[in-house]
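Lab notebook page, bench 4
Experiment: in silico fold of construct C2
Operator: M.H.
Input chain length: 366 residues
Purpose: comparison with the prior construct
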Amino acid sequence: MELSGPGTSIHSTSKNNTYAYLSGTSMATPHVSAVAGLLWMQFPTCTNQQIRNVLAKTSKAVEGNYDCTENTGFGVVQAVDAYDVLSRGDCGGFLNSTSSKGGCQQLDKYSISCTSSSNCDDNDPCTIDSCESGMCVSQINCSNCGKSEIVKVDIRPDLYPYEVTWEITKNNVNIIAGGPYAEAKLYSTSKCVDVGSYEFTIYDTYGDGICCVEGNGSYNITVGTTAIKSGGSFEWSESTNFTINPSTLPPTSPCKKYEKNLLIQFKPDKFSKRQNNFLIHKQNWAKTGWKLIKKIQPSSSSELMTYHICLKKWACHRFRITDKKKNGICCENGGGWYNVHWGDEKLDHDPFIDGYAQTITFGNCD
């Protein structure tokens, strides 16, 4: 769903030269189509894509929900508001031609005209965003955000795209998801992910898959340049497991036999030099408190930094990153990130998006 229109108790023409009050999508669809047609008649130099995007941008949220939803899309079309926006003369600031994503994905950075790369920043530290010839262009670079590999999912639904959804999970936590879709065309989703074991599952609510009863739909999963799975013929669902292995880590500093290397990789945001600290603690022998054994202040505000620290294997340790402004290192002031490795093990943590501090406990802490 992308746009809504009045569809309940609509005074409509009926049989035998009479009128009746009718409800349903057959009532709502003509409202949206008529508004789109009238606007295009008034602003013929704008393309159908631009008219469509302006309708979405100016729609009225349903029941106070200001997010685009599966049931009502961006909201109810507002003819006057859309007309006012188009009257400015720039077709709403939208590109005259762009990839039509449909549904709640229709409006994004890549549908808007840009004048500088800052207009294109999508707050994703894994992408390099730039403005080229008035159009936002985005490239995924996993080294920018400390992730290991790109997972790409290509889905071409059958003739009933709204029946199709999919997800990729890690330890039963949703990492990426897609659908339901608006059209029977190719949709591509890419995301940088970490090392670990994952499960891809595709669903069809009617139980006939996406090929080949009602059209020749298909799906493909790729990790980097390696094809993981292709398919389309299933019933209610189909699952595939895959693993992303760690890439080569930077050389480690030599440690003594009773020590292990702690590797910290840190890509700062714009203000990390003044705001961030790394604190390394060791738990005392009674396990009742922590002793600070190392404090690090980043030396740069832009470059990727790597730190090696030798710590005793037998002890319980704590890594703590702090931010004075309490807004984390991503994504308000740039796409900062960090990774922590204890020997060959990469320690799991959530992105440091907001808050004063984030803590990881590791070592012999039982």
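Observations: The chain has a mean pLDDT of 86. Helices lie at 25-42, 48-57, 79-86, 272-275.
Next step: discuss at group meeting.
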